[in-house]
TrEMBL record, chain A:
The gene is cydD. It holds the Pfam family ABC_membrane. InterPro entries: AAA+_ATPase, ABC1_TM_dom, ABC1_TM_sf, ABC_transporter-like_ATP-bd, ABC_transporter-like_CS, ABC_transptr_CydD, P-loop_NTPase, Type_1_exporter. Residues 338-573 form the ABC transporter domain. GO terms for molecular function: ABC-type transporter activity; ATP binding; ATP hydrolysis activity. The keyword Transferase does not apply. The chain crosses the membrane at residues 18-37, 57-76, 138-155, 161-178, 239-267. This is Thiol reductant ABC exporter subunit CydD. It comes from Chlorobaculum thiosulfatiphilum. It is a multi-pass membrane protein. One of its GO terms (biological process) is cysteine transport.
TrEMBL record, chain B:
The chain crosses the membrane at residues 14-35, 41-65, 138-156, 162-181, 245-263. CDD domains: ABC_6TM_CydC. PANTHER family: ATP-BINDING CASSETTE SUB-FAMILY B MEMBER 10, MITOCHONDRIAL (PTHR43394:SF1), ATP-DEPENDENT PERMEASE MDL1, MITOCHONDRIAL (PTHR43394). It is found in: Cell membrane. One of its GO terms (biological process) is cell redox homeostasis. It is a multi-pass membrane protein. One of its GO terms (cellular component) is plasma membrane. This is Thiol reductant ABC exporter subunit CydC. Keywords: ATP-binding, Cell membrane, Membrane, Nucleotide-binding, Transmembrane, Transmembrane helix, Transport. It comes from Chlorobaculum thiosulfatiphilum (Chlorobium limicola f.sp. thiosulfatophilum). The keyword Nucleus does not apply. The gene is cydC. InterPro entries: AAA+_ATPase, ABC1_TM_dom, ABC1_TM_sf, ABC_CydC/D, ABC_transporter-like_ATP-bd, ABC_transporter-like_CS, P-loop_NTPase, Type_1_exporter. Residues 19-302 form the ABC transmembrane type-1 domain. GO terms for molecular function: ABC-type oligopeptide transporter activity; ATP binding; ATP hydrolysis activity.
Length: 580, 573
């Protein structure tokens, strides 16, 4: 059965509309029976007595009433189910976005971000059919046949018996053929989506195709691939559609058998006319409801798949670390040392510690440079300070208070962060800046832009600060993005600055400008930075050399040069490179 | 409306197939009508207790229609899917044809994967236009016609009433619901787009949002968009329900009308009870044709929107039009750039401003300068992705706008910073550069580009965008392509900029070795092995500010010397 436990749980949170929908379906079924009874009565009268319009008018009136009510109850049933579905979708969106937000950057960056977005948006939309179509149809397919049988048996028990005997054929065939066919169909739809992937690939690589003068030649390739997919898909569909043909035949032949049996018994005088006609009117409805369950079953399938992906995220809610609720003020941060005490961290699923028993005291107002080979744990340490991840062991404290006591918001208020690859939002340059401080004035924005060396560039844009950037707007170069990130840090003006210095792969001139801006930014703040450049490192108050997750060396440039460790070796090898 | 007609025009080659499919759709519903009418005929006739043989025709009819309905439905589904896929093929080829001359200049705004994905989705969704928008009204019209003849055979008055209610169900109700639903589909699409942007920002920018204390802000905006979207979808569902209900009421109206207009005929004996019952059943069955019209109405708006987006793209005028009578590609490959000026659309600052230089055949020239100096623009102009605003580029004394762009590109091998690899095999990715190359030639090219490791993996999938290969391997594949292309002119556009220092060094050697004897133009901002170039051109803010050999430029002690010192004066740890 197409019953997903997680989806059922969601359903139980919104029982009311679905119960109402089922009730409306039941009333609708009663109306359907009443309507058929009236219509058979009218035709019987017309048939036997050729009555005047006046005489049939009461029956016609009732027929009109019942059929109108049936339509209205049907509509109400759908509406209620839809209402419940939308309420569930709203809850799902809230829970999913809340969980994703609470799981934070370590989750958002570990899983493919595209998949998270798809689950959050498309996933929630694809459960719609399960709730708004499959579940109501499931209710209807339980209620309507029952009501019809109860109505038919007293009128014509043989027709009722035929229905009872043939009805199980529909689910039986559905299971027998449906399983294989739906597997094949699914495979084929995957091929179809691969085809559209191929087409997307061609469009994205169009410049490359043109460079090799192959763009025109590939046109036929697209046509050929597309046609091949059509042929193979049609082969599969020929079989897949057999299942619905079988179901349809059970319905129509069932109707035919009932019609013939009624006809023959009427002929023999074993059955009065009106019950026969009444039964015949109801038989197609009986099969229709069951057949539709098959269609809606497939419509709901996608929701079950989507539900799995959504609950993979929702089930991780237990991993969300608990943050404290204490407040802290800027003064505290600028006067107290950050004490890192026996700190360890392990990546999920990895046996090796990324950070192993690290202890370090960072005095307020000093610059600490983290250095070491890649994979040494520099970024992990920064991520722990940023509380993007929680330590496996040990703690970070501000003075004597554990950092985890502070609420996330109050902690972040004291931090300015300049990452190596800053993210720019699909918004105007102004909005991207205002994220750092929502109430910044125009003068403050201008000043930050000047300090970051971005003022002239922004001014040269036709729309200035209102220029859209990111996906849908203009793209900034890597260097410009870094400067924008610097401008954000200037605006935020927080006492603790966490920096990831850009590697030297950018333009040398630009790099020199960036470095100068960074130096200004660092003044008067507590700075912890991942440093790559010798000059930056040399000027730090303290250099911490990490290696394999442990502190290999720590001290000033002079102290470290006096020691024959990694640091001196690295300095010498870089000198050699310059000499070469 | 114009967009809609253009979309319909696209399906014209399939008009006959579509008509056939609509006819079969009509036959399906016709069988349904036949089944119910034959059943009604059968039992009403039986009620008159004639001889059993008199029922035979009814029994046969019931069996026939019972089977034919299922079988025809089967044929209809096959046919309509087949046609849909054909249309999809055509739409893809049509869009590719239209968009090919526009690339890349007019597609610059659609570079991102997400936007292109939306285009592909748009095309995919247009397959609906036939199956869900165009076909149901044709079927409904044919059914209306059929019922007119069946009912009209007995009573014109009854037929008029049936026609009226079918017109209500087929035209008035869809028009009413379309009016009520106006803007719904469009609004839903717009909100979906807004949510996409918000969700991508939220997930990818989660770190920043956290530090700025804006996570709550974004989840709230996302929920708000969701709430608005749900409100619209609720409205759409309400309207859909209204449509179905009104169609149902129209059917009941038709039944009552038949009774009203045919009872007097039955009374007078002009029509017997058998006929009356059959006609009532037939009319009820005929309304099946009107139910899919809800879908037509709801899809049309979304389809027109998708069509508008596509037309907006392909209606752009191509940047580069090939000359009517192209000159043959010249024998000599010296490059002459004269007074070259180029401004990107929407920018008020020229990317290149009066640049002139020449590259003698077989020589090596480097173009250096900081990011944004206009270096890569020269490549785009060389291969005619764009046309210069002013000035000319000539090869062998021939202005390149007199050459066939395809011939030009075949003779210029470009290795750029980011190599696009198709989601195909490594062989197919290599054959792009030389469609007729033998496996032996491919292997040779791989060896020369330092990719011996890929020798036995020609049939391996390169992965989506070359994901199965490292950055170094991707650039080496680009070099293998360059070798295979065997072009007299080579343009290296920051070919090694994204690589780490060790890989870069190795690749620069390979490039140096494999490009011997050709006219080489290398664009770079990283000054490595500059002594290997005969000539160095220094670009700054779109202008040539220095020119000479490495030694001459160092001696000059100007901008170039400054760049050189910046890069080589300090070490890294």
């Amino acid at each position: 059965m197409n019953i997903d436990r997680n989806l059922m749980r969601l359903l139980s949170e919104q029982k009311r509309p679905f119960i109402l929908s089922g009730l409306a379906g039941a009333v609708g079924a009663l109306m359907l029976v009443a309507q058929a009874w009236m219509l058979s009565g009218i035709i019987e009268m017309a048939f036997r007595q050729a009555p005047a319009w006046r005489e049939v008018l009461p029956l016609v009136g009732l027929f009109a009433l019942f059929s109108t009510l049936r339509v209205l109850f049907g509509w109400a049933g759908h509406h209620e189910a839809k209402k419940g579905t939308l309420a569930i979708r709203k809850t799902l969106t809230e829970r999913l976005s809340g969980t994703i937000a609470a799981l934070g950057p370590s989750f958002a960056r570990s899983a493919q971000s595209g998949r998270i977005v798809t689950t959050l948006l498309k996933g929630v939309e694809s459960v719609d059919a399960w709730f708004s179509q499959y579940i109501p149809q499931l209710l209807l397919s339980l209620i309507v046949p029952l009501v019809i049988l109860v109505a038919i048996f007293p009128a014509d028990w043989l027709s009722g018996l035929i229905l009872v005997l043939t009805a199980p054929l529909i689910p039986l065939f559905m299971i027998l053929i449906g399983k294989r066919a739906s597997a094949a169909t699914e495979k084929q739809w995957n091929t179809m989506s691969r085809m559209s992937g191929h087409f997307l690939d061609m469009l994205q690589g169009l410049s490359t195709l043109k460079l090799f003068a192959q763009a025109k030649a590939r046109r036929d390739g697209i046509e050929e691939a597309s046609e091949n997919f059509r042929h193979s898909t049609m082969q599969v569909l020929k079989i897949a559609f057999l299942s619905s043909l079988t179901l349809e035949l059970v319905g129509t032949l069932g109707t035919a058998v009932v019609a013939v049996s009624i006809g023959l018994r009427l002929l023999g005088g074993h059955l009065p006319f009106r019950p026969g006609l009444f039964a015949l009117l109801l038989v197609p409805e009986f099969y229709l409801v069951l057949r539709q369950l098959g269609t809606k079953f497939h419509a709901g399938m996608e929701g079950v798949t989507a539900s799995k992906e959504m609950h993979e995220i929702l089930d991780r809610a237990s991993e969300i670390p608990k943050a404290g609720s204490c407040d802290l003020d800027a003064n505290e941060v600028s006067t107290r040392p950050i004490v890192i005490d026996n700190l360890s961290y392990r990546f999920p699923g990895s046996g090796k510690a990324a950070l192993d028993d690290v202890s370090l005291t960072i005095e307020p107002g000093t610059v600490t440079a983290l250095t070491g080979p890649s994979g040494a744990g520099k970024s992990t340490l920064l991520n722990l300070l940023l509380r993007f991840v929680e330590p496996a062991d040990g703690a970070i404290s501000l003075g004597s208070r554990r950092v985890r006591q502070f609420s996330l918001d109050s902690w972040y208020r004291q931090i300015a962060w300049v990452p190596q690859h800053p993210f720019l939002f699909n918004a105007t340059i102004r909005d991207n800046l205002l994220m750092a401080r929502r109430d910044a004035t125009q003068d403050e924005i201008d000043k930050a832009l000047k300090q970051a060396g971005l003022f002239d560039m922004v001014r040269s844009l036709p729309e200035g600060l209102e220029t859209m950037i990111g996906e849908e707007g203009a793209r900034l170069s890597g260097g410009e993005a870094q400067r924008l990130s610097l401008a954000r840090a200037f605006l935020k003006d927080a006492p603790l600055l966490l920096l990831d210095e850009p590697t030297s792969h950018t333009d040398p001139i630009l790099e020199a400008q960036l470095r100068k801006a960074m130096e200004v930014l660092m003044r008067g703040r507590t700075v912890v930075m991942i440093a790559h450049r010798l000059e930056t490192i040399r000027n730090a108050d303290r250099i911490v050399v990490l290696d394999g997750g442990r502190i290999a060396q720590s001290g000033t440039h002079g102290e470290l040069m006096a020691d024959a460790g990694f640091y001196r070796q690295a300095i010498f090898s870089s000198m050699e490179e310059v000499a070469a | 409306m114009k967009t809609f007609l253009r979309l319909v025009g696209l399906t014209r080659p399939f008009a006959w197939w579509m008509l056939l499919a609509a006819l079969i759709g009509f036959a399906t519903i016709g069988s349904g009508i036949g089944l119910l009418m034959a059943s009604a005929w059968l039992i009403t006739t039986a009620a008159l207790m004639p001889a059993l043989s008199a029922l035979q025709i009814g029994i046969t009819g019931v069996r026939f229609f019972g089977i034919s309905r299922g079988v025809i439905r089967y044929a209809e589904r096959l046919m309509s899917h087949n046609t849909t896929f054909r249309i999809l093929t055509r739409l893809r080829v049509w869009f590719y044809d239209a968009v090919e001359p526009l690339a890349p200049a007019r597609l610059a705004a659609y570079r991102s994967a997400d936007l292109l994905k939306r285009i592909v989705d748009d095309i995919q969704s247009l397959e609906n236009i036939y199956a869900r928008v165009l076909s149901p009204p044709v079927t409904a019209a044919l059914v209306t016609l059929l019922m007119w003849f069946i009912v009209g055979h007995w009573s014109i008055q009854a037929a008029e009433g049936v026609l009226a209610s079918q017109l209500v169900a087929g035209i008035a109700v869809p028009m009413l619901t379309a009016r009520l639903a106006r803007g719904t589909a469009r609004g839903i699409t717009a909100l979906q787009g807004e949510q996409q942007v918000l969700a991508v920002d939220m997930v990818q920018g989660m770190s920043e949002l956290r530090v700025f204390g804006m996570v709550g802000d974004y989840t709230a905006r996302l929920r708000e968009a969701e709430a608005k979207k749900l409100a619209l979808q609720k409205r759409a569902a309400f309207i859909e329900g209204l449509h179905e209900s009104l169609t149902g009421l129209a059917m009941n109206g038709a039944v009552i009308w038949i009774l009203y207009s045919m009872l007097p005929l039955a009374r007078s004996g002009a029509v017997n009870g058998v006929t009356l019952a059959s006609v009532v059943f037939g009319v009820m069955a005929s309304f099946e044709a009107f139910l899919p019209l809800t879908g037509s109405v709801q899809n049309i708006e979304a389809d027109v929107r998708a069509g508008e987006r596509l037309f907006e793209i392909i209606d752009a005028k191509p940047e580069v039009v090939p000359p009517a009578k192209p000159e043959p590609f010249p024998k000599s490959t010296g490059i002459e750039v004269k007074n070259l000026t180029f401004t990107y659309p929407g920018s008020d600052r020229p990317a290149l401003d009066g640049v002139s230089f020449s590259v003698p055949p077989g020589s090596r020239t480097a173009i250096v300068g900081p990011s944004g100096a206009g270096k890569s623009t020269i490549t785009s102009l060389m291969v005619r992705f764009w046309n210069p605003t002013q000035g000319t580029i000539s090869i062998g004394g021939q202005n390149i706008d007199r050459l066939d762009p395809e011939a030009l590109r075949r003779n210029i091998a470009v290795v750029s910073q980011k190599t696009y690899l198709f989601g195909q095999t490594i062989r197919e990715n290599l054959l792009l550069a030389a469609p007729d190359a033998t496996d032996e030639q491919l292997r040779q090219a791989l060896t020369m580009s330092g990719l011996d490791s890929l020798q036995g993996r020609l049939d391996d999938w390169a992965g989506q965008h070359g994901m199965n290969l490292s950055g170094g391997e991707q650039q080496r594949l680009a070099i293998a392509r360059m070798i295979l292309q065997n072009a007299p002119v080579i343009v290296l556009d920051e070919a090694t900029a994204n690589l780490d220092a060790v890989t870069e060094e190795a690749l620069l050697d390979t490039l140096h070795r494999t490009s011997q004897g050709r006219t080489v133009m290398a664009i770079t901002h990283r000054l490595h092995h500059m002594e290997r170039y005969d000539d160095i051109i220094v670009l700054y803010e779109g202008k040539v500010i220095e020119r000479g050999s490495h030694e001459e430029l160092l001696k000059l002690d100007g901008f170039y010397a400054g760049m050189w010192r910046l890069q080589h004066g300090e070490g890294n740890v």
